[in-house]
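STRUCTURE:
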């Protein structure tokens, strides 16, 4: 009974916070229960509700929209990573508010979500516990803040994640050449710099992208739009 009362309380809080917002729920597996929950508790207004489990469907819907939405996004979707849709969303002129739900197992997904300055990052376990992290995230967004679930703080601290340090044009050049499969010596020759300088650039790039491998640099840089 106590858990049911807590769930009901969370639903009321969610309804109150989002009653004046357009909403997109993009989850996989698709949750019919969540769809019905949102529809039932947010009747009586002309705001939009869109439900999907697909990157393609959601991106197409957003391409035709001119209004800001609150978007709830899961880590994995039917046709790819939630972070891929997150990247697509960031390209729109409209600044949608995105809450991504991660399970914490794939550090790269957390890294990408942080690098893209996602409005709120919530741990999947927090939803299962009904601990209020989702509500806290929405409240933070409405105050113009970025929210990170406390469950991720230990990971962030341990890995010493960098969040607000942009890459230089030279570092982006190095990443593009790295993607072509060039060695440090070949990169040095292309850019007319020493191998020592290339090594220093790569070390700093890895630090800023929170990875320790050349492949990690390419993957993360691609997923956050630094390179094509």
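SEQUENCE:
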């Amino acid at each position: 009974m106590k858990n049911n009362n807590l769930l009901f309380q969370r639903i009321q809080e969610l309804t109150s916070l989002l009653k004046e917002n357009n909403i997109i729920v993009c989850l996989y597996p698709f949750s019919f229960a969540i769809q019905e929950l949102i529809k039932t508790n947010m009747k009586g207004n002309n705001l939009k509700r869109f439900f999907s489990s697909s990157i393609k469907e959601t991106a197409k819907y957003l391409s035709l929209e001119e209004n800001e939405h609150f978007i709830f996004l899961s880590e994995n979707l039917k046709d790819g990573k939630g972070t891929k849709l997150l990247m697509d969303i960031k390209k729109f002129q409209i600044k949608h508010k995105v809450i991504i739900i991660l399970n914490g197992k794939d550090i790269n997904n957390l890294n990408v979500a942080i690098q893209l300055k996602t409005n709120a990052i919530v741990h999947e376990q927090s939803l299962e516990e009904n601990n209020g992290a989702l509500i806290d995230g929405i409240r933070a967004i409405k105050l113009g803040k970025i929210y990170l679930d406390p469950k991720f703080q230990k990971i962030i601290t341990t890995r010493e994640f960098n969040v607000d340090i942009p890459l230089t044009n030279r570092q982006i050049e190095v990443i593009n050449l790295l993607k072509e499969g060039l060695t440090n010596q070949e990169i040095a020759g292309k850019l007319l710099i020493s191998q020592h300088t290339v090594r220093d650039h790569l070390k700093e790039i890895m630090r800023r992208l929170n990875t320790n491998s050349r492949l990690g640099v390419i993957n993360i840089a691609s997923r956050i739009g630094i390179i094509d």
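REMARK: The chain has a mean pLDDT of 86.
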